[in-house]
Specification:
Mean pLDDT: 97
Number of domains: 2
Strand content: 15-25%
Strand order of the largest sheet: 1-7-6-5-4-2-3
GO molecular function, one term: pyridoxal phosphate binding
GO cellular component, one term: cytoplasm
Shape: globular
Structural class: alpha/beta
Largest sheet: 7 strands, mixed
Cofactor: pyridoxal 5'-phosphate
Number of helices: 14
Bound molecules: pyridoxal-5'-phosphate
Order of helices and strands: HHHEHEHEHEHEHEEHHHEHEHEEEH
CATH superfamily of the largest domain: Type I PLP-dependent aspartate aminotransferase-like (Major domain)
Helix content: 25-40%
Pfam family, one: Cys_Met_Meta_PP
CATH architecture of the largest domain: 3-Layer(aba) Sandwich
Keywords: Lyase, Pyridoxal phosphate
């Protein structure tokens, strides 16, 4: 299916709503039936009818069909957060006594689920370095039910060979789940590479304007129908119609935004790589990246998230640099219009800062939609501040 068709036409039946170009927000909790027999049919198969908006809703439906097509999957569900998509995907595929193999630094709330919630139900997890396929083979046990992936991983951007992991898991009847938030389905399609369930935080690039929290889970009709009839409706974490409408709006400009961000990110990387206070830039599609070859094989792009390591002995210098930025905001999340930064040292008490560890001297930068020079000159003046003080 062509990208332009998916984003501009797919699932939009304008005859249903006065030929309006922008689809309506069907802000209703429930739907009325004309006959008892119609109602009975809906009770028999809620996934085929409009019954109640905790399940299906026409505005959400437009979004669902577009997002499933973008993932090249059979079907998808849209949640009111990426965390909810992770929770439903994992919960739907484990039972008491099962085991999960996960990449070692999955998204915070995936890790919290693995460490704090699932052990209460006798589900254990083994964390591995996912850059080597042999580590998956070693970690798999007879009761392994799920392999949990995140490629690239969101700080150092470690990749997993998605095709190789999918093949290994299929041979052992293990369900694979991949967090694809970094790339979006425009730049990576895990489902096409054999991954069973692909998910992303739509809060990031799909929304694109830092104003919606949402998540997408895509897979086969069989998996998605089963999750709809169980976890999705039971947890009640489906997206609301207004937020679905905002995501449809975000999708219209997704390719244009990613193209712009990709270009600006190249310029920012070139600036950082040649700056004397920058030790290293970490970005999957930079030729210095350790898994550059694999990145080229499974990713079509890498958008605007990068990490750089400052050459400094002190936590104060890093703090000074961040506090001196005039335009780049200090905030979590990414994927919106605005450039953002987080220093790793914000996640630890100052006395635990160890300049011997590159990780502690690292900063994660998200490159937004501003003019390239606007971003670069802000970085440059803040680097000057710490150069003069050190
Ligand atoms: C933000 C994020 C999530 C969680 O998504 P929310 O929409 O914030 O719940 C999951 N995975 C990754 C990699 C993320 O960056």
């Amino acid at each position: 299916m062509e990208l332009s068709y998916i984003l501009n036409e797919l699932a939009e039946d304008r005859d249903e709503y006065f030929r309006a170009v922008s689809p309506p927000i069907i802000q209703t909790s429930n739907f009325a039936f004309k006959t008892v027999d119609d109602l009975r049919r809906s009770f028999e198969d809620e996934y085929a009818t409009w019954l109640y908006s905790r399940g299906l809703n026409p505005t959400v439906e437009i979004l669902r069909r577009k997002l499933a097509a973008l993932d090249a999957a059979e079907d998808c569900l849209v949640f009111n957060s990426g965390a909810a998509a992770i929770f439903a995907a994992v919960l739907a595929n484990v039972k008491s006594g099962d085991h999960i193999v996960s990449v070692k630094e999955p998204y915070t709330w995936a890790r919290k689920m693995f460490d704090e919630i699932l052990p209460r139900f006798q589900v254990a997890v083994t964390y591995i370095d996912g850059t080597d396929i042999a580590n998956f083979e070693k970690a798999i046990q007879p009761n392994t039910a799920v392999i949990y992936l995140e490629s690239p991983n969101s700080w150092m951007f470690d990749l997993q060979d998605l095709r190789a992991v999918a093949a290994l898991a299929k041979a052992k009847n293990i369900v694979t789940i991949c967090d694809n938030s970094f790339c979006t389905p425009l730049f990576q399609k895990p489902y096409e590479m054999g991954i069973d369930l692909t998910l992303q935080s739509a809060t990031k690039y799909i929304s694109g304007h830092s104003d919606v929290i949402a998540g997408v889970l895509s897979g086969s009709s069989k998996q998605i129908t089963r999750i709809f009839n169980s976890e999705y409706n039971n947890i009640g974490s489906g997206i609301q119609p207004f937020n679905a409408w905002l995501l449809i709006r975000g999708l219209r400009t997704l390719p244009a935004r990613l193209e712009r961000i990709t270009r600006t990110t190249q310029a920012v990387i070139e600036f950082l790589k040649t700056h004397p206070l920058v030790e290293r830039v970490i970005f999957p599609l930079d030729s210095s990246f350790p898994q550059y070859e694999l990145a080229g094989r499974q990713m079509k792009g890498a958008c605007g998230l990068l990490t750089f390591i400052l050459k400094t002995e002190s936590c104060e210098a890093i703090e000074n640099f961040c506090n001196s930025l005039k335009h780049i905001l200090m905030a979590v999340s990414w994927g919106g219009h605005e450039s953002l930064i987080i220093p790793k040292c914000a996640g630890m008490p100052r006395d635990q800062f160890n300049p011997g560890l590159a990780l502690h001297r690292s900063l994660r930068l998200y490159v937004g939609l501003e003019e390239p020079d606007y971003i670069i000159s802000d970085l440059s003046q803040a680097l000057d501040v710490i150069k003069h003080h050190s």
